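Researcher: Quick test of sequence recovery. Tokens follow.
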């Protein structure tokens, strides 16, 4: 294949056009490190190699940009890169390299997420579900939740004060609050005890007047 022209394109790329008017877009750094220039004959194998390097480099740069915005699990970043149009091989290679550099660490991600979620009154069961959906391995989830202290009773009390206090003043709404807390992943016994304690507190306060 004969290289006809090489021109700077947008987004840190160059457009390499061939004699048959076909073209490829290559990452600027990958092109600058290559031996090709206008008028050269290049093989299909070399072009394939340059395209693979270019896709990897662009995927690497995009992944760094994503991580600058927020933390990701390995699977979430891999899926994000694939959705952005990068080849599976390039996305996988970036994930592997970032793990080696400790830029990606599912254990660290899971621990940070679990601690923040627990402080926001999210149950252990729901934390587990959320981490699983983010692609964290079950062993890491179990290890993480075993290391994070969660006071389920305190979480339920906090949620009652923040979200359900008014509803619980109406006896007809107690069952719906019970169901809502169960859906959030709290144990039946903890929800039952919390609602019982709260109703007794309401009764005590009403008897004071």
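Model:
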């Amino acid at each position: 294949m004969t290289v006809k022209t090489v021109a700077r394109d947008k987004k840190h790329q160059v457009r390499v056009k061939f004699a048959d008017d076909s073209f490829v877009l290559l990452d600027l750094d990958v092109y600058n490190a290559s031996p090709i220039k206008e008028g050269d004959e290049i093989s299909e194998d070399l072009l394939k190699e340059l395209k693979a390097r270019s896709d990897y480099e662009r995927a690497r740069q995009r992944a760094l940009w994503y991580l600058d915005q927020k933390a990701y699990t390995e699977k979430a970043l891999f899926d994000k890169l694939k959705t952005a149009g990068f080849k599976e091989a390039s996305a996988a290679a970036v994930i592997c390299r970032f793990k080696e550099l400790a830029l990606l660490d599912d254990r660290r991600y899971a621990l940070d997420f679990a601690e923040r979620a627990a402080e926001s009154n999210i149950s252990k069961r729901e934390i587990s579900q959320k981490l699983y959906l983010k692609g964290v391995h079950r062993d890491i989830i179990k290890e993480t939740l075993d290391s994070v202290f969660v006071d389920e009773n305190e979480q339920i009390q906090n949620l009652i004060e923040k979200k359900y206090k008014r509803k619980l003043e109406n006896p007809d709404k107690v069952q719906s609050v019970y169901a809502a807390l169960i859906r959030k992943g709290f144990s039946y016994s903890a929800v039952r005890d919390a609602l019982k304690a709260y109703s007794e507190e309401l009764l005590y306060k009403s008897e004071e007047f």
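The CA atoms of residues 50 and 160 lie 59 Å apart.
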